[in-house]
From TrEMBL:
<dbReference type="InterPro" id="IPR042116">
    <property type="entry name" value="TypA/BipA_C"/>
</dbReference>
<protein>
    <submittedName>
        <fullName>GTP-binding protein TypA/BipA</fullName>
    </submittedName>
</protein>
<dbReference type="InterPro" id="IPR048876">
    <property type="entry name" value="BipA_C"/>
</dbReference>
<feature type="domain" description="TypA/BipA C-terminal">
    <location>
        <begin position="22"/>
        <end position="127"/>
    </location>
</feature>
<dbReference type="Pfam" id="PF21018">
    <property type="entry name" value="BipA_C"/>
</dbReference>
Amino acid sequence: METQMGTKAYSAMAGEILMRENGSLVAHETGAATSYALETAQDRGLMFVRPGDAVYEGQCIGMHSKAGDLKINVCKTKQLTNMRAAGKDVKVGLDEPRTMGLDDALEYINDDEQVEVTPKNVRIRKDPFAIGKNGKKINK
């Protein structure tokens, strides 16, 4: 079959589209991401946000290193009590977060996720209305 675009032919679907095996790291709270919280969160997977970025509940802020999604709080601040403690403030060594364009985000998402496109950002969020195979809501 010849198309208007050239000599490429259409064919039947070759099989299921493979989804990623890793889950997502999902923001638990709305606020600004802190370096203190991101330092502990980066042990759980690859991050998509930097310190100071605005995040909201349900936003995918990283790729979990294991299967399944994990809700984490990246807005948590360090407690300011006991200022004379031996554990002084240490400079945080954060890995560079992965920046995604529109193509990368569309390739990354699973069935229960959505891509938000604004003039300044491309974000991924969990679909709050996603329904699983059993008819129940997935993302509460």
